[in-house]
Write a structure and sequence with these properties.
23% helix; 4 helices; globular; 7 strands; 7-stranded antiparallel sheet; alpha+beta; Jelly Rolls
């Protein structure tokens, strides 16, 4: 059994009402590049939406278990890898993490709403479905089922 699966019995899973407060995000811009850095505290399970484009991921600090399209990986910073378009990640944060994504930004757009529409698949239902499954598993464990 992987750590992500085992971790659900140790966690009190709650929906995070305000991701910005729990996982603060910084945005950086340079010629043709948009970079997003997120801080994720230890103990969280993060279910991400799929990105529409290929991009780089850089785990700057911390340690986590990551399921990418059904394949489990243990990542310890520093670590850099490429995500393909359509990739979806579920993370269990073992130690506070700072994670950065680096995207091509040919037109030097800085409007965050436009960038989110450009890079994130808002139609992706997997995060909601995975979160609900984890919540139901936790609820069943608490009820002894």
């Amino acid at each position: 059994m992987n750590t992500l699966t085992k971790s659900t019995d140790k966690l009190h899973l709650e929906e995070v009402k305000c991701v910005q407060d729990t996982c603060p995000t910084q945005h950086y811009f340079s010629d043709g590049i948009y970079t997003r850095e997120i801080f994720m505290p230890k103990g969280l399970i993060i279910v991400g939406k799929a990105h529409k484009t290929r991009h780089l991921n850089v785990v700057l600090t911390g340690e986590c278990d990551v399921m990418i399209n059904g394949e489990m990986k243990h990542i310890k910073a520093p670590f850099t890898f490429e995500s393909l378009a359509g990739s979806q990640k579920t993370l269990y944060i073992q130690e506070d993490c700072r994670w950065m994504t680096i995207h091509v930004n040919d037109d030097d757009e800085t409007d965050l709403d436009i960038l989110e529409e450009r890079y994130i698949d808002s139609e992706d239902d997997r995060p909601h479905l995975i979160r609900n499954r984890l919540m139901n598993e936790r609820k069943n464990e608490c009820l002894g089922q």
